[in-house]
Input
Amino acid sequence: MTGGFEAAGDLATGGLIGRAFEPPAGEVVHGAHGEGLCLNCGTALKGEFCYRCGQTAHVHRTLSSIVHDLLHGVWHFEGKIWSTLPMLFTRPGELTRRYIAGERARFVSPLALFLFSVFLMVATFETIGGPIGGDNAKVRRNGSEFNVKGIAAALAEAEAQQKTLEAQRAAIVAKHGDTEAIDDKLESLRSDIGGLRTASAVTTGKIEDVKLSSKVHTGIDSIDHRIDYAIKEPKLFLYKLQSSAYKYSWALIPISIPFIWLLFPFRRDVGPYDHAIFAIYSLSAMTMGAVGLSLAKVIGLPGGMIATVFTAGPPLHMYKQLRGAYGIGRFGAIWRTIALLVFALVAGLIFFIVILGLIA
Output
């Protein structure tokens, strides 16, 4: 119940923060009038908005207006969200190009959409979990595939077999027999049990249950310190890692811009602003796509289909956005998509290193 309230709070906060960054152009205010002076700056009104500061002519002073502003901020973004989201997934290149060209009042601004998508992802993951993992998560062992319940059953079977072999070994030792063969079986079985325990912890989301060696020496003291901290306090480390990743997710934008520039180093008709809009819309699409897949998992979409979309969706979206936003051909979009996938991995690694440096 507490998680649900926290998720709702994150969602509302995301809408309000997105609303704060969203330009007011294109809004329609019901009941506005154009008489008298602006209540904000005192300028004589000549319409529904003050031409000097932009405040609406009519200002509500009721409790219902507070609720209206909250719901309006969370769900509507002045109605522009419904014209933005379909294009974000079906025609991302056209959306990017048109926003850069000047159609700012028609679409939700990239930064507002990005902030809202991040908070929406937080709310979704806290409520129902992410798109990967859960009861549908699977792992392979000795050529066989197991889901969460199958992993638990296989682990119980392996542990029972271990007890049987240990009893047999004790009997052999009592008779002063050779234990080499049974020792080999026990060593192999213990390795399998360790793998199954790790798989169980990962697929159920209990990463803190994974047993790691505390003797890690990379040769770099700062990295060794952080690894040691993660091993000693896994729950606290993972909590700090998750919260910091959400809090500093905006850092992916400046990290991504130089890599996008490398795709078009000799293009004089595009600049850093164009690359920034491209990056923000792309990050927003990936974030909201993860939310959509999480919902799809809850309603029972097959795990294989979710995995396919999770794997093939980002490259396809990048291809369409590159081709539409920068007006390039198929070949140019294909090789740039491949390069962008590599750059995305590098940018993600840089982001992880930055976050790692902040939390320990």
Observations:
- DSSP finds 13 helices and two strands in the chain.
- The two ends are 31 Å apart (CA to CA).
- The longest strand covers residues 139-141.
